[in-house]
Amino acid sequence: MSFGPHADFIVAAYAVTAFVVAGLIAWVVLDYAAQRRIIGDLEERGVTRRARRKE
Amino acid sequence: MPVIDLANPTRFLALVNRVLPWLVAVTALVFAIGLYRAMHAPDDYQQGATVKIMFLHVPAAWLGMMGWVVMSAAALGTLVWRHPLADVAGKAAAPIGAAFTFICLVTGALWGRPTWGTYWVWDARLTSVLILFLLYLGVMALYWTAEEPGRGARAAAILTLVGAVNIPIIKFSVDWWNTLHQPASIVRLGGATIDASILVPLLIMAGAFTLLFFTLHLAAMRNEILRRRVRTMQLLQAQTLSEAHT
């Protein structure tokens, strides 16, 4: 498999695409972990998603 | 499960958690097949091996536009039905659509230099895609800088629907104006003008990019639902603390 005289342009295009896609994947994975961690911390402190009724 | 049940964020989250691992596996498989076929596709008789950039550039362009179509549908859901999941879908799609549009612009420039002799020209197709990218950034800014999510969602939805005018302009720019960019060679009335040895890998890569888009979109929607839960919990915590001090 040869990319010919313009191999640099082809490799750069695939590298940029791989970098951006990897960035998107990292964004959703890290964001998911962060939200789960914050929810876990809040639940540990007794915070729920339902407001307590006034006695 | 009836489709209407998916409008419930909790049921939607349960479905996403079940579907996402399968979608990830199928996306990886289709990408592996697509990349293998793309790397073993023959060179173009005029462009040589640079035609391999097309396997990234064209799917990225399609997905950049499709992202805006998804956001436009979500914007209607936000403005007409005021559905919270529509707003979630719109906000989650914006960075993904912007990333695909960015890939389209960069790979287009890298393909243009050896093919046309220039990285960039202000012709109708390239300029309208650049405007699409800037519109994505504008919508993201509206979503991310709004202090109250509902207000940001309405402003972003309006900008999305206004920006939807740009989608047919991008598609037909090569027909309406004299551009350096080539006219449509795949989605056209007379059928594709590309040989099957190049068209088949291109369609597989387009399928892989589409799967990637929806996989990332579902994952980002799940994150956004969780982020809104965090906000609700933090507001309730603040309310409880302020009541305790009074």
Mind sketching the topology for me?
The complex is a heterodimer of chains A (55) and B (246).
Chain A (H helix, E strand, L loop, with lengths): L6 H38 L11
Chain B lengths: L8 H31 L14 H26 L4 H33 L7 H22 L3 H15 L2 H11 L19 H50 L1
Helix pairs in contact in B: 1-7, 2-3, 2-4, 2-5, 2-7, 3-4, 3-7, 4-5, 4-6
Summarize the structure.
The complex is a heterodimer of chains A (55) and B (246). Chain A has one helix at 7-44. Chain A has 55 residues and is mostly helical.
Walkthrough of the structure:
- The complex is a heterodimer of chains A (55) and B (246).
- In chain A, 69% of the residues lie in helices and 0% in strands.
- The model of chain A has no long low-confidence stretch (mean pLDDT 88).
- Chain A has one helix at residues 7-44.
- Chain A has 55 residues and is mainly alpha-helical.
- Chain A has a domain at 14-41.
- Chain A is rod-shaped and about 65 Å long.
- With 246 residues, chain B is mainly alpha-helical.
- Chain B has one domain (22-245).
- Chain B has seven helices and no strands.
- Chain B has helices at residues 9-39, 54-79, 84-116, 124-145, 149-163, 166-176, 196-245.
- Chain B is elongated.
- The model of chain B has no long low-confidence stretch (mean pLDDT 90).
- The chains are: A mainly alpha (55), B mainly alpha (246).
Sketch the major β-sheet of chain A: none
Q: Any idea what the radius of gyration of chain A is?
A: 23 Å
Give the structural class of chain A: mainly alpha
Mean pLDDT of chain A: 88
Specify the number of helices of chain A.
1
Biggest contact = A-B, 36 and 39 residues
Give the % helix of chain B. Answer: over 70%
List keywords for this structure.
heterodimer; A: 55 residues; mainly alpha; 0% strand; B: 246 residues
